[in-house]
Amino acid sequence: MTLLLNRTDVESLLSMGDAIACVEEAFRQLALNNVTLPQRTVIRIPAHHGVHLGMPAYIGGNMDALGLKVVTVYPDNPAHHGLPTTIGILLLNDCRTGAPLAVMEAGYLTAMRTGAAGGVAIKHLARRGVEKAGVFGAGVQAQTQLWAAHTVRPLKAAYVYDVDGSKARSYAAQMSKRLDIAVNVVGDPRRAVEGMDVIIAASSASEPLFDGNWLAPGQHINGIGSHTPGARELDTAAITRARVIADLPDACLVEAGDLIIPIQEGAVTKDHIRAGLGDVVAGLKPGRENDQQITLFKSVGLAIQDVSTANLVYHRALEAKVGHTFEF
Fold it and tell me: If we measure between CA atoms, which residue out of 167, 229, 162 comes closest to residue 201?
């Protein structure tokens, strides 16, 4: 029997704290070589401005989870079709037999696991005493990134910049209520950088969001939004000034324009990526080395985040008797 879980089911079973714990452990298992993680397949649909991604993973160790996420990213969906930008489903398999355990909606899962990875990065890379975060973008990813940041390092205030002022205002109202902190809209990108302890780039921009020379010693950046070779949210100055930690260095060297473009320019080499996040979580390589260092986490998203989180959702669903069972 296979368990079918819709978005409402997944939302009811998954908290941000749980997602962060799952993703952190998945990164640890990755560093310990207990993971099989092929490079995701990418099919681009230029006629419809879409991308289709296939993301399989097996996580061994104490997790023993196997699955595949199929996710599509169509930026025109909200305006033209009344659909979310990101639509996904996840198939979770029994590691012992290969039988399908669950099929679940993965749009919400994707947002939560991406936020969770950002939370893990802030936990391990940001300075102590984090109080203020600057956020670029006002979409779903910007929501879960700030939520995760506040979960690992309780904030006093956040400042959001988006080219669409109405979206920024809506975001500020929603996140102020959710997190019970002041979330302020700023009209100048510099105000989302200067004086911030953490800077979150979670936009749909293809060009740099701010001047990397604005960065001050000790700041931490989460680079989340861009995940194609020709697009970047962070400029060359930001990259060269930061100690760069990637979710997976090999994946970022294929997909992350934030890093690929400065390498092509000759400003840095691939060795500028100092470690994978899993290496830092597992204590195999250092993350932040001192309070003056600018640190940067660059993420393109990994299937281990999805599979680890889905595995938890599945077991929670069994306990709570949530979802519908069916046979193929």
Answer: 162
Rg (CA), the chain: 19
Q: Distance of alpha carbon 33 from its chain centroid, rounded?
A: 21
Q: Are both 179 and 278 inside the same structural domain? A: yes
Domain that holds residue 316: 2-110+304-326
Q: Based on the domain organization, do 295 and 208 belong to the same domain?
A: yes
DSSP 8-state class, residue 194: T
CATH number of the domain that residue 288 is part of:
3.40.50.720
pTM (2 decimals)?
Answer: 0.94
Per-residue confidence at 268, pLDDT binned at 50, 70, 90? very high
- Strand 182-185 vs strand 157-161: parallel, antiparallel, or unpaired? parallel
Judgement on whether residues 264 and 279 belong to the same structural domain of the protein: yes
Per-residue pLDDT, 226: 82
Token code pair at residue 247: 């979710």
Strands (E) across the chain are located at: 2-5, 35-36, 41-45, 50-59, 65-73, 86-93, 100-105, 132-136, 157-161, 182-185, 198-201, 220-223, 243-246, 273-276, 295-298, 324-326
For residue 256, what are the contacts with CB-CB under 8 A and spacing of at least 6?
223, 226, 227, 229, 232, 246, 298, 300
CA 232 to chain centre: 15
Percent of the chain with pLDDT over 70: 100
Whose CA is closest to 251, among 261, 260, 238, 242?
260
Match 């701010």 to its residue by tokens: 210
69 tagged catalytic: yes
